[in-house]
Amino acid sequence: MNYMKRLEPDELRAVYKKHIREDFPRGERRPLFAMERMQKAGRYDCYGYYQEDSLVAYACYILTQSSSYALLDYFAVVPELRGHGIGSRFLRDLNGTVSAKCGVFIEAESPDSAKTEEERQIRERRIRFYLSNGAGRTTSRCLLFGVDYNILFIATNDTADKKDAEQLHHAVEALYRELYGRACGKLCRPYCERCADHTPV
User: Fold this and answer.
1) How confident is the model at residue 164, as a pLDDT?
2) Taking 80 as the threshold, does the pLDDT of residue 84 lie above it?
3) CA 105, CA 14: separation in Å to the nearest integer?
4) CA spacing 20 to 30 A to 189: which of 84, 100, 142, 170?
5) What's the alpha-carbon Rg for the chain, to the nearest Å?
């Protein structure tokens, strides 16, 4: 029997130490204290997916101040259970649970900037996973710490599902400005492929 629950601070701490440290390279790991600070402020949602009483997957979201949008920060299935459909079931359940009023943005490394064919295929496979589980493509991209990301979007209500490319891109820009402040435009540069303004922020 699988079930999902929102993680309390002590549970997030345990998942970070046991799983996030193992599943993500050092350069992609947000400091635990930053996650805890945002969680305490109501800006960070974390969920665990359980089989019986064992954690099989987890996800963390950063919420905007208005809670209109969220950014998927971490999503992973424990290594020994990958490839069995757990991630798909978990993501579909999350789509109806996350606190964002309008929708969730997902950063997916761009296949266009992959350095090897193997890396390109891995990135394409990751994008296909999100697309097959409720996400849609946007025209937004982001150069984040030198890595080029495609931005995907999962709408959490019918109104958000009808937003056009420029509306979504404005929301992406606002989200990154909120997250990175003065560094937005330097370390973090959101831009739009086909909007009226193509220039990175």
Assistant:
1) 84
2) yes
3) 26
4) 100
5) 16
